[in-house]
Amino acid sequence: MTAPLTTDSPAPARLERVEELQARISGMQATRLDSKAVPTHPAFESVLPGGTLREGTVVQVEGSTTLLMALLATPSASGRWVAVVGLPDFGVEAAARFGIALDRLVLVPDPGGQWLTVVAALADVIPMVAVRPVGRVSPAEASRLSARLRQRGSTLLVAGEWPGSDARLGLEESQWQGLERGHGHLREREVVVSAAGRGGFGRRARSRLRLPDRSLGFAIAGEALPLPERARTRPTRVEPEWAEPVPLGDIERRATG
Amino acid sequence: MTSELSRTIVLWCPDWPILAACHERELDPGQPIALIESQLVFACSAAARRDGVTRGLKLREAQYRSPTVVVLDYDAALDARIFEPVVRRVEETVPGVQLIRPGSLAMRARGPTRYYGGEDAAAAALLATVAELGVPGARVGIADGPFAAEQAARAATASPVGIVAPGASAAFIAPLPVGLVTDTRTTTLLNRLGVRTLGEFAELPREDVRRRFGAAGAFAHDRAAGREQARVIARTPPPEFSVQQEFEPPLDRVDQLAFAFRVLAEEFIERMRAVRLVCTGIRVELDDEGGGHSSRSWLHPQWFTPADVVDRVRWQLQGAGTASGLASPIVRLRVVPERIDSTGNHEEGLWGGGPDERVHHGLTRVQSMLGHEGVVTATIGGGRMLTDRQVLVPWGDRAPERPNDAPWPGSLPALAPASVFRERLPIALQGAGGVTVTIDGRGAITTTPEVFAVHGGKPAPVRAWAGPWPVVERWWDPERAKRMHRFQIVDDDGCAWLLVRDDEGWWAEARYD
């Protein structure tokens, strides 16, 4: 599959183009034709590739339990069951205040060495599973589990490393407000959430969020940040000059529609 | 029906609630014991009665009269459960038994009298049966009608058998107080009218009693006059569902035992299924070689399948010993159904039981991998410390009912930390110059916190802090009293912590991450 590149552009621009195309290809490979969107908090629209969590995908969430809860809250509020594996310190009260329904929350605090089996068994029946892996996961195991997730339509959030995850979220900055030197109390926090798509390719986004905000919700704080990378265009948008090959456009339309 | 009253035998075990409680808790029935229901004494042992404890006394008054009294909660289900083997054994001696209440049985006298050759002999046979089961002080009363027979049993103090000759029952009960047949209000009224004994009550004209006291009064009047129309209604013995397995030689491995029990578990469930019943609660009882006894109830959110029963047995065994071996080999295993329901109430819907049933099956699978406590659901309870507030309940168990709308002064404001450490992390909080921050008797800090370090980690400057916020719990109880101070800090990475300072030092209770 070769995209018709304009021949008169200078070399760096061409390299740029190749990178962008690679990102688009891997972005499309990640988005399966029939993968459905999972209801996600609107604050993450600019962060997550595709705007929402999707069924059958694996998303890495690094460095913040609040971020994990924020991703779990809206699916839980929409009636889905949520399982949390291997996070013995998961704050139940915070989860409840952020909107996770406790009667549809299942905790497996100490799965021990069998955590991967437990996750696989839970993914069969529970549409949102969050896990903190113990040790390294081999790519073979990960892809077996991914196949199972896709088949069942479950979403896996991983608080740690995962080979071949579909997206990767992390905190870059964290700024608490309300607490001063000697007085006040923690009230809200502004964070910068960075996101990368599959295999580090795809869209890289940074977004300033309130996590949590004053009313224990989540919100976008201010304008979208200037992106360090060039990959600012949405991978799903078809640009006219190189959208000539019909099958590609066809796939995309189906994928986005 | 005005036919002649049939001769009735009543078997009475005095202080049955006390005996049942002692049997369950392995106490000595000779010591002063009181069973309490809604802060009043429901039953008391003979030793407590000697100290002046009576039924209906307030708990505090009972403790005042008998300082050494052992106070237990009254459990009606326990009474019935412990009495059940007695009923079954008596049914083998004398068929057609009516259970009046746990501790009292009524049966018709004609059959046993003829079989054993006399009322005395029948009574002796009954007493021997009960004595075999180790029930002390049982008594038998024989008279015309269940009421008179029960009074005869209660009146028999010299010998354990009280027999009232046929036709003499009315005369026998005449001197007894009228309160035995009427409720408190009517008794008071009758006493004020000068009617104190059953005999005096029986002399009142029947029609007048009916007009004044209604049907209940007429019934009481008939009883008092020895015209009771109640007859012994023998119970149909309920089918026995509990299963028991003895192991010879005793087994000491969990998997071995679970495997051996598998067949019996199938039979246990199948027997109930045959009469269209499902079981939603079981009780597993284990006896080990060393004479130990473990007994525990298990609930099921739906109903038990044979595999579920085996799982429960395994979990109970795992709780008793180490992972695979047991502290002491098991000689006997008994499973008793505690809650039984008709299958009709548990039918699956036409389109299946919905998604929650799938969830249940998945979680049960995980639970059989990790053990009963491996999969938990959470509720929020009351408390000041964060770990107290999250109540984790194993999947399938019922959440304890704890009101959480109490104000709990000293608990944290709305924003809750996302990570609550099960074990508090030791940390260091220092002021300028490396001096540990301490709190003086007036609750003020000695220096301002400047440097924060998680145990073994690199020290980092403190960006913001607030505190101390005192938390004082159970100051009236020297053993469980807690006194500590809480701080919130933000470290150099922008991560916020909830810190606790107590007598032992500085700890991180939770992290806002």
Automatic annotation (TrEMBL), chain B:
Residues 26-152 form the UmuC domain. SUPFAM superfamilies: DNA/RNA polymerases (SSF56672). Keywords: DNA damage. InterPro entries: DNA/RNA_pol_sf, Rev_trsase/Diguanyl_cyclase, SulA_CellDiv_inhibitor, UmuC. It comes from the Bacteria. GO terms for biological process: DNA repair. Poorly processive, error-prone DNA polymerase involved in untargeted mutagenesis. Copies undamaged DNA at stalled replication forks, which arise in vivo from mismatched or misaligned primer ends. These misaligned primers can be extended by PolIV. Exhibits no 3'-5' exonuclease (proofreading) activity. May be involved in translesional synthesis, in conjunction with the beta clamp from PolIII. Belongs to the DNA polymerase type-Y family. This is DNA polymerase Y family protein.
